Amino acid sequence: MPVPEAIDALSSLLGDRLSLSKPDLEAHGQSETYFTLTPPDAVAYPNDTQEVSAIVKICAAHGCPVIGWGAGTSLEGHALAVRGGVCVDFSRMNKVLSVNPEDMDVVIQPGLTREELNQELRATGLFFPIDPGANASIGGMTATRASGTTAVRYGTMRDNILALEVVLADGRIIRTGTRARKSSAGYDLTGLFVGSEGTLGLITELTVRLHGQPEAISSAVCAFEDIGAAVETVIQTIQMGVPMARIEFVDTPTVAAVNAYSGTDLPEMPHLMVEFHGSDAGVAEQAERFGEILGENGGTGFRWSTKAEERTKLWDARHKAHWACLASRPGAIALVTDICVPISCLAQAVEETRADIEKASIPGPILGHVGDGNFHAILLVEPGNAAEMEEAKALSNRMVERALALGGTSTGEHGVGVGKLPYMEREHGEAWDVMGQIKRALDPDGIMNPGKMVRGN
Amino acid sequence: MPVPEAIDALSSLLGDRLSLSKPDLEAHGQSETYFTLTPPDAVAYPNDTQEVSAIVKICAAHGCPVIGWGAGTSLEGHALAVRGGVCVDFSRMNKVLSVNPEDMDVVIQPGLTREELNQELRATGLFFPIDPGANASIGGMTATRASGTTAVRYGTMRDNILALEVVLADGRIIRTGTRARKSSAGYDLTGLFVGSEGTLGLITELTVRLHGQPEAISSAVCAFEDIGAAVETVIQTIQMGVPMARIEFVDTPTVAAVNAYSGTDLPEMPHLMVEFHGSDAGVAEQAERFGEILGENGGTGFRWSTKAEERTKLWDARHKAHWACLASRPGAIALVTDICVPISCLAQAVEETRADIEKASIPGPILGHVGDGNFHAILLVEPGNAAEMEEAKALSNRMVERALALGGTSTGEHGVGVGKLPYMEREHGEAWDVMGQIKRALDPDGIMNPGKMVRGN
Ligand SMILES: Cc1cc2nc3c(=O)[nH]c(=O)nc-3n(C[C@H](O)[C@H](O)[C@H](O)COP(=O)(O)OP(=O)(O)OC[C@H]3O[C@@H](n4cnc5c(N)ncnc54)[C@H](O)[C@@H]3O)c2cc1C
Ligand SMILES: Cc1cc2nc3c(=O)[nH]c(=O)nc-3n(C[C@H](O)[C@H](O)[C@H](O)COP(=O)(O)OP(=O)(O)OC[C@H]3O[C@@H](n4cnc5c(N)ncnc54)[C@H](O)[C@@H]3O)c2cc1C
């Protein structure tokens, strides 16, 4: 759906900050995973909120789709221009607008990445904890309701956004929320836009909650005979109320891939990677309790360390696990799954998934943020091999069915995008229609990231 | 707006569970504060979700207003039947449907009160922490996005509701959310219904997050020379990351009222009442840190205690502070204010409010959940004294203006109801229109708690 009139008007508005170059369009039409290249008709690089509003007004006038773009790291084809239109790339809107150390919050533009934000905060004693591994933009993370390794302690993006500025589908600019820590003043619009994947409006400014850098941090890694023992350790740790900052599971195939990629020498067994945040005494106490629980579950090799280098090495290896898994099958593309279940069902969900993948012809390492009941399989498919892709999709489909049957969700953190859209009705039933009603109320012409999130959009 | 046809049909459906008795109507037409008696035309007592759906369908067919009723403890006239209609009292829907200790959640009906819930949980090692003092229903607390003394540690209702069952304005029954701890599967409908004050639908079932009963609890009370020193102690404590379970401020007039009402003998000075939750060592460490901070601010009389009786006595006195203040001016009615500001502005907000009240002719003790930047004044007015009521409203109005000017909110936890409706436009600007769009999308005929929350409803 090329919309030449809109592009003409945008070109007058933005000059060379409207790009029509093929490489640029293609860069904004790809995804990190298996989806087909689906480029937009143009890429806009706004400088500020007023420009975003002007862009959306032009698009609204011409019925032209508008798709936000942060860092392009989302995994379900969220930003694919399935109906063409204009991609709004927020990379130039990447400023820190104000740091409020006394209130432990920061006001930023959406294109800032989480690593850039933490760089800016280094001297304040504060940090932004949400860590999806990838160096995503805060706007994109908000739009997908991202979480990652530290959500077990610090919550998800839902819990860490105090207020937003949003450009709506008609170009109106609204503010949701205030800098107060809590409010009962009306519908939770902030919460509504968090996780809305650009289908209700574009986020142009964010007030983000910060946390104090912990006085002490210690990390550890430990091995288990089998998946069940590792997951049982997680369940008991959470139930005992040990305030873990991170508790990550990696299965044997993941460990093998990580060893090969990052030069670690972990035994090829299921592992937990953990981190404790607190006071010196608090961290020591947490580590001791965790040590007891894992001892009872036959965990081995537990040794906790407060050394920054060891810690960095461990989490670097964990963060690169995605690339390590990809490298374990040279040339492969990934279908990354993402389910989340009540923690009492976690062992069953992981074990059944592992067994299911073993029966398949493709490799699929499993890893996850198990403290939340959330895990992924990275299903590795030969490009162009339709049979393998079908197998991967069938495995992914069974994972979702398993999650829903166990009272869980089809996506714990990656979001809906294109990949999980087919499951929305099954997960939500009539509540999915309510999402459609809200979408139509705020975007009656369906120009905001069309083809996503709701039925028939 | 009596709607005889609806009442006839409801009477056939519910028999003697539809009440038209004057005392019953009046009991459901009053509020805990200064609002005029505004009774509904009938009170329905449903037994289950299907009946709630049937009630709403009948009301929808006749354009009859439907107003939910939990425990009737809300403070802004939330449930007043300003357009008449049917009050749906959830007192018969007060069952615990399932307790899932492994997953630390519980599924309940909305009429259950927080004290009843904690009674049921006593043997599980788990508890529901949100504590607004009043023995409110969990459905009502969800509808108002309540919080209270423990929100500084455990969050508000927003953070503790995993999933809801809701009857919509057309009688459809939907489920929002799952039992997974987190999800990125679509718009956050759970969050949208939390705090919607019965204007989008009636909550008929809730999946509520629980927390482990802390191994150790200790409490303390301490006095300060002036408000500034007390509030400065709070700010530093929060900024140091001491994980307070409660940190409550009471000013001198409140202390005097509490002493008289509860027989305590606190010095007549501003006080903080605090509580620590954690392991034995953790609680001791927190108390020590807090002790250092308050020492630097000239706090006196700090003595922490792990004795259950002392603790119960302290929090009982705090919880009765509302009634103590009322009793301090016999026969008075209360206009209870509720603002929340960024914590860096808390001292200014409290001190300016105290000074403003001192200039007035009516008493107004101040107290609050200051760890969140949230506080209240209990403005005590002689019934029928229009000049005093006007003075109280002017004071309350200036508090809201102060909160908004400081980047805060017109209500931290009590909600909008009738009392805060006039501030919605000023606080939200065009975002208030968006709330109206959502309301009209889900309740086009405006039958759900009409006259509340949005413009012209
Ligand atoms: C190796 C790897 C590991 C990952 N691990 C995790 C993980 O552990 N946890 C996790 O949650 N995710 C993870 N992800 C996924 C990804 O990092 C997240 O989805 C992230 O939130 C995407 O942010 P982004 O800036 O890249 O957004 P993009 O991919 O650019 O966009 C994502 C969506 O948000 C919309 N959008 C972007 N900016 C805006 C805006 N300003 N306003 C409105 N809409 C906007 C887009 O239109 C699109 O729909 C991982 C990805 C990779 C590649
Ligand atoms: C002494 C005292 C102290 C208080 N302290 C605090 C405090 O510290 N923090 C705080 O947050 N609040 C406090 N409150 C206010 C009050 O307790 C809360 O607002 C509480 O959440 C109201 O719950 P309820 O069950 O009484 O609801 P109700 O008053 O019965 O109803 C409140 C609103 O919710 C709607 N509603 C009720 N049930 C449902 C349902 N099932 N579905 C949809 N809508 C429904 C009603 O229509 C109404 O709009 C206090 C009140 C008193 C009297």
From TrEMBL, chains A, B:
Annotated GO biological process: lactate catabolic process
EC number(s) per entry: 1.1.2.4
PROSITE patterns referenced in this protein's UniProt entry, alphabetically: FAD_PCMH
Pfam family, one: FAD-oxidase_C
Keyword field: FAD, Flavoprotein, Oxidoreductase, Transit peptide
Segments forming domain FAD-binding PCMH-type: 35-213
Cofactor(s) the protein requires to work: FAD
GO molecular function: D-lactate dehydrogenase (cytochrome) activity; D-lactate dehydrogenase (NAD+) activity; FAD binding
Keyword Kinase: no
Family: Belongs to the FAD-binding oxidoreductase/transferase type 4 family.
Name assigned to this protein: D-lactate dehydrogenase (cytochrome)
Record organism: Actibacterium lipolyticum
